[in-house]
Design a protein that fits this description.
heterodimer, A: alpha+beta, Glutaredoxin, four-stranded mixed β-sheet, B: alpha/beta, Rossmann fold, Ubiquitin-like (UB roll), 5 domains, five-stranded mixed β-sheet, 24 helices
């Protein structure tokens, strides 16, 4: 270890890995993936994986990814819901790994929900 | 990256309630469900709430599961980690509310705590140096080496008001300045991790939960005082602590945080572990250094103080683990960060090992000046079984007791000394109405008699004679003259012993005698033990009108001292029992089994 910069570089890298431990519950964005039998059968696992990887890759802060059970719209699985404090929740349906990556970059990073993937657009 | 982190306590407390098996079961089940790339299992240091172990926290939700069993693991993995459904029945009851899971920091046990020395315990993986770095680790060292002169480091520590956490309470910065002022070709830093007080385990928790913190602090101390080598003297009875500290030292060397030219500052420092065999006296600084040198652990007279002539005859700075654990934070955030907490004369926080008759046994860290009542009633959750608080013993075998009328005392170094107790290393043993104070004094004295190294007569012979007087009192053969002799002997031992062990050994006797004189007199004059602890002074009897004649006591009596009489109490169907006091060994088994509570002692 020869400089403070070197130390801070390790710190930043390690901090990103530990982000999940800082979100003590409610503050920050929660991304919830439906992982009941229906969700998993429809391919929720690669979606979840893609979300987690993309968030790590782009080093998005204050976002937690959790899973939930069946919310009752099994034909639209895999379903991903984004809860942002103070905003309406956004429900994405029939997700894929590629769509999930786009949700991270557009919605979580730039703050613009991907309207064409939402339940409102798909069921029209 | 992992989406979920499962933190399992790997402190000694939880390890002995099988947290290691939980980790194996978690990994196995996680693999079974194909989650191994999504969920990380981390073995951390102590969370503090040892009474509810084994403990685990699942992030990002922050769910606090307590008293988890291996059989519960498949359910946690299946329900929580796979399906996202929190296993409510295993949550720490205080965190369960109607609508949501309450964050741990808002529970009574954690709410009033303020963690500085223990800040990383239960938060990071102690065996992963990068996790320590993620939480600002080694930044204090970087700041000291690249931005500050040794004098500035010492001045910051002086300004912080930090005092020795091992018991003495000597200002740490001043101690450092003494060593720094002595010129020598070689100086040393020594960490006293020979935690010997019965019931104290805060140093162990720091070593187990945050070993890099100690490595960083000792390196800072080396820079400030001009030392290039450090020794950690830790007892061999702390195998987990030793293992993790060794790993921390190895990793720090690999990352160049120990060794030559750290942070390109030209400063060299290295660290070594020495194992102690567990003698209490080796916690005394001169005895400790004698032991590191490879000699029999015996104290020597001071002066010369270690700052002048310490380890291997060279100027040495010796601090306790908890003292060191505060240093990186003080350097990184400045003296004001630390001296804004606490009281006029005692700054910062103090870790207490809460034990005895208390609901939440465990480790707590509170700002100095917190009252005893807050620690016992709010954080500790009060006394089990609705019993009444009688006294708290602080400072272990060197300290004294604080009775119920001192519950509102603000705890700091000087307040405790003024009340005849002492901070000590931070053991806090709570006693209730079932504890006999004479017996407690005897317990601590038995400990010091065992641990006396024998070098000086007042301690070797004096404590033995003192114990004999106490044994006489608890067996009902004491006289009022014995009490006077006892007090005189106590003061003699205090004044004439060579080291801290002997000088403080009579404290538990003096303090209990001062606060609970009536109990001593009851033993001597009435030949009674009010708490019913001293076996020679209690006799068991059955209230023949309360006895329902079930005979459970007779069945369980190991010496067949209980027999049926021919007396049938009014309203009862069976004849009552009686105890033959000649045969009775006063084991107390009958009392525990008597439903109508008909047995008295």
């Amino acid at each position: 270890m020869k400089s403070l910069e070197e130390l801070l570089a390790i710190k930043e890298k390690a901090q990103a890995q530990l982000a999940a431990r800082d979100s003590d519950g409610n503050d920050g964005i929660r991304v919830v993936v439906g992982m009941a039998t229906c969700g998993i059968a429809a391919g929720a696992r690669p979606v979840l994986k893609s979300l987690v990887d993309e968030i790590a890759k782009r080093n998005v802060q204050h976002v937690s990814v959790t899973q939930t059970g069946c919310i009752g719209m099994c034909q639209y699985e895999p379903i991903v819901e984004v809860f942002e404090p103070g905003k309406e929740k956004v429900t994405y349906v029939q997700m894929t790994a590629e769509k999930a990556a786009k949700v991270v970059s557009e919605h979580l990073v730039n703050g613009k929900p991907v309207v064409e993937y939402t339940v409102g657009a798909v069921t029209k | 990256m992992y989406r979920a982190h499962v933190l399992v306590c790997g402190g000694t407390g939880c390890t002995s309630s099988h947290s290691g098996e939980l980790i194996d079961a978690l990994n196995e089940n996680i693999k079974l469900k194909g989650l191994e790339e999504e969920v990380q299992v981390v073995r951390t240091g102590c969370f503090g709430l040892c009474a509810l172990g084994p403990i685990m926290i699942v992030y990002p939700e922050g769910c606090f599961y307590s008293e988890v069993k291996v059989e519960d693991i498949p359910e946690i993995v299946e329900e929580h980690l796979l399906k996202g459904r929190i296993v409510k029945r295993l949550l720490y009851s205080e965190t369960v509310t109607e609508e949501a899971v309450k964050p741990l920091n808002e529970t009574n046990f954690y709410k009033k705590q303020h963690r500085v020395a223990l800040r990383n315990c239960g938060v990071i993986n102690p065996e992963n140096i990068e996790e320590y770095i993620a939480y600002d680790g080694y930044r204090g060292l970087a700041k000291a080496l690249t931005e500050m002169t040794p004098d500035e480091v010492i001045q910051t520590v002086i300004d912080s008001g930090l005092r020795g956490r091992g018991g003495g309470g000597f200002p740490t910065g001043k101690k450092w300045s003494f060593t720094a002022a002595n010129k020598a070709d070689q100086k040393y830093v020594v960490c006293n991790a020979d935690e010997g007080d019965p019931g104290a385990f805060m140093d162990r928790s720091v070593l187990e939960g945050d070993p890099h913190c100690l490595v960083e602090a000792m390196t800072i101390c080396g820079y400030a005082t001009g030392a290039t080598e450090g020794y950690v003297y830790v007892r061999a009875e702390y195998p987990i602590a030793v293992e993790r500290l060794q790993k921390a030292i190895d990793d720090a060397r690999e990352y160049g945080l120990l060794g030559k030219n750290i942070f390109n500052s030209g400063f060299d420092f290295d660290l070594f572990i020495r194992l102690g065999a567990g003698a209490f006296v080796c916690g005394e600084e001169t005895a400790l250094m004698t032991s590191i040198e490879g000699n029999r652990g015996e104290p020597r007279p001071r002066p010369p103080y270690p700052a002048v002539k310490g380890l291997f005859g060279k100027p040495t700075t010796e601090n306790n683990v908890e003292t060191f654990a505060n240093i990186p934070q003080i350097i990184l955030h400045g003296a004001e960060f630390f001296n804004s907490m606490g009281t006029e004369t005692s700054k910062g926080t103090k870790v207490f090992a809460l034990g005895g008759k208390i609901n939440n046994t465990g480790l707590v860290e509170v700002p100095m000046g917190t009252t005893l009542r807050e620690i016992v009633e709010d954080i500790g959750g009060g006394i089990p079984n609705g019993k009444k608080f009688k006294a708290a013993q602080t400072g272990g075998p060197s300290g004294g007791c604080l009775p119920a009328d001192l519950l509102d005392i603000k705890i700091d170094y000087d307040n405790l000394v003024a009340k005849g107790a002492m901070m000590g290393s931070g053991g806090l043993i709570v006693m209730d109405e079932d504890d006999c104070m004479v017996d407690i004094a005897k317990f601590f004295l038995e400990f010091t008699v065992d641990e006396s190294c024998g070098k000086c007569t007042p301690c070797r012979v004096g404590t033995r004679r003192l114990l004999e007087i106490l044994e006489k009192i608890t067996s009902g053969k004491g006289t009022m003259e014995d009490l006077d002799r006892m007090e005189k002997l106590c003061n003699y031992i205090k004044e004439n012993s060579l080291c801290g062990l002997g000088q403080t050994a009579p404290n538990p006797v003096l303090s209990t005698y001062q606060r609970f004189k009536d109990e001593y007199i009851a033993h001597v004059v009435d030949k009674k033990c009010p708490a019913g602890v001293c076996k020679d002074l209690v006799s068991f009897s059955i209230d023949k009108d309360k006895c329902i004649g079930c005979g459970i006591c007779a069945k369980n009596c190991p010496v067949e001292a209980i027999t049926r009489t021919d007396y049938i109490a009014p309203g009862h169907k069976l004849a009552s029992f009686t105890i033959d006091t000649d045969k009775c060994v006063k084991c107390g088994v009958c009392i525990g089994n008597c439903k109508p509570k008909a047995i008295n002692k």
